[in-house]
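User: Reviewer 2 asked us to show a designed sequence for the structure in our supplementary figure. I'm pasting the structure tokens here. Could you produce the per-position amino acids so we can include them in the response letter?
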């Protein structure tokens, strides 16, 4: 169960050197209240980043996230150091008027750009701390219908500032057929509204295995995820992280059951470098030019 994360095996040779020096990676979670954002963070952190925890009693409910908060961990693999931060945002959608609920989130992302710019402008630029958000998981309610107006508004506010990765929350509440149809519908909505989600760049001269892995990941977007704090017993006597139902167990770490493993693989292994690059070269650069323009520079 406890595999390692795999970031030390980044597939692209060119990236290895920068990675050896040690680096920072920040992921943010955004979406309506109750969609399992905090649980998924815990699920991401729980396997490879922390030793297994005592399972929570079934009655234990996670307190509501009320402020933007970040959780960090230093992990090391094969001599590569990674400082991983996850930014948890309070859920929205609870209020009659949710019009501006995207604003504090965009402000948080931009203030991280600001702090980076300030460091770049210093005389001594040796120790720049990169707290920029490199990926944003956007949680979609598992309705099986189309995207909500609120989702479209949020994604349109966010997509020019952060690498958006849409995920279908609580995928254990949908059947396999419903997930396939819902994914197609979501991608159509996203295209229709000209929302830019993170797309893996395609490289030439990659080996077959790398290309196959890239294709496999791309085919899963939006990732149908299941989070769980609990270890449960399967019918065949294994102990797994999952959610138990009268008819059986949905296993978080089983690729036949949900896309959690693929999502983690994309974030911390296959595309971590690409996510960092696009954040720096495109998103941050665009923000910086807009800022300079608005200041009349
Ligand atoms: P947040 O408000 O988005 O942070 O949501 P929480 O992580 O606090 O979870 C809200 C509720 O949904 C809790 O009771 C969780 O146990 C439950 N939950 C979280 N993830 C899942 C999931 O993947 N499937 C199901 N069925 N329930 C989940
Ligand atoms: Mg929460």
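Assistant: Here is a per-position design you can include in the supplement:
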């Amino acid at each position: 169960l406890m595999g390692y994360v795999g970031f030390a095996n980044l597939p692209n040779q060119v990236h290895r050197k920068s990675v050896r020096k040690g680096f920072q990676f920040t992921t943010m979670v955004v979406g309506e209240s109750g969609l399992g954002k905090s649980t998924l963070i815990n699920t991401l952190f729980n396997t490879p980043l922390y030793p297994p925890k005592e399972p929570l009693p079934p009655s234990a409910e996670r307190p509501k996230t009320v402020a933007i908060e970040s959780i960090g961990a230093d992990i090391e693999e094969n001599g590569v150091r990674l400082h991983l931060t996850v930014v948890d945002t309070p859920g929205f959608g609870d209020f009659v008027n949710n019009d501006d609920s995207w604003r504090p989130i965009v402000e948080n992302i931009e203030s991280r750009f600001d702090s980076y710019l300030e460091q770049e402008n210093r005389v001594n630029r040796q120790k720049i701390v990169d707290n920029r958000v490199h990926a944003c998981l956007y949680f979609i309610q598992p309705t099986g219908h189309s995207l909500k107006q609120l989702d479209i508004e949020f994604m349109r506010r966010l997509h020019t500032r952060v690498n958006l990765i849409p995920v279908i929350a609580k995928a254990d509440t949908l059947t396999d057929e419903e997930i396939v149809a819902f994914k197609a519908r979501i991608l159509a909505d996203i295209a229709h509204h000209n929302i830019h989600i993170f797309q893996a760049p395609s490289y030439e001269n990659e080996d077959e295995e790398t290309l196959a892995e890239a294709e496999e990941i791309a085919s899963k977007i939006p990732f149908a995820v299941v989070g769980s704090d609990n270890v449960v017993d399967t019918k065949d006597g294994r102990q797994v992280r999952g959610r138990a139902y009268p008819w059986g167990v949905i296993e978080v770490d089983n690729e036949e059951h949900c896309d959690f493993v693929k999502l983690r693989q994309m974030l911390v292994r296959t595309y971590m470098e690409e996510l960092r690059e696009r954040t720096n070269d495109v998103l941050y650069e665009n923000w910086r030019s807009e800022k300079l323009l608005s200041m009349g520079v």
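For the response letter, you might also mention the following. The beta strands are 23-31, 69-77, 80-88, 135-140, 164-168, 223-224, 231-233, 239-245, 248-251. The chain is about 35% helix and 20% strand.
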